[in-house]
Amino acid sequence: MNDVYHERPDWQKALEHHEELCDERHKGIQNQFQSIDKRLDNIEKLLRFTIGAIIVMPPILIVSLTLILRVML
């Protein structure tokens, strides 16, 4: 009976150590995810700006050129 009680604290220590390691790994993974999330947000902003410019610029150029040509002719 005493052997069982002696084994349990070792088992608990091993489990606590395992949980501490997992917590450290989890924090590292969370930090990496946050870093990736920030980079993806920046990429998303850049894409939105680029797509907006692609959609908006041609009509602005067409209107500008037609006005310039009307003034010149």
Q: What is the count of helical runs? A: 1
The count of DSSP E runs of length 2 or more, i.e. the number of strands, is 0
The biggest sheet, with number of strands, parallel, antiparallel or mixed sense and barrel status, is: none
Q: What helical percentage do the residues reach?
A: over 70%
**Domain module count:** 1
Helix and strand succession?
Answer: H
Instruction: Specify the structural class.
Output: mainly alpha
Computed over alpha carbons, the radius of gyration is 31 Å
Indicate the overall shape: rod-shaped
**How much of the polypeptide forms β-strand, as a percent range?**
under 5%
**Poorly predicted sequence stretches spanning 5 or more consecutive residues:** none
Nearest-integer average pLDDT: 90
**What is the terminal separation in angstroms?**
106 Å
Features:
rod-shaped, 73 residues, 1 helix, mainly alpha, single chain
Detailed description of the structure:
The chain is mainly α and 73 residues long. It has one domain. Helices cover 97% and strands 0% of the residues. The longest helix has 71 residues. The radius of gyration is 31 Å and the shape is rod-shaped. The model has no long low-confidence stretch (mean pLDDT 90).
Q: SSE layout and pairings?
A:
Blueprint: H1 2-72
Short recap of the structure:
The chain is mainly α and 73 residues long. Helix content is 97%, strand content 0%. It has one domain.
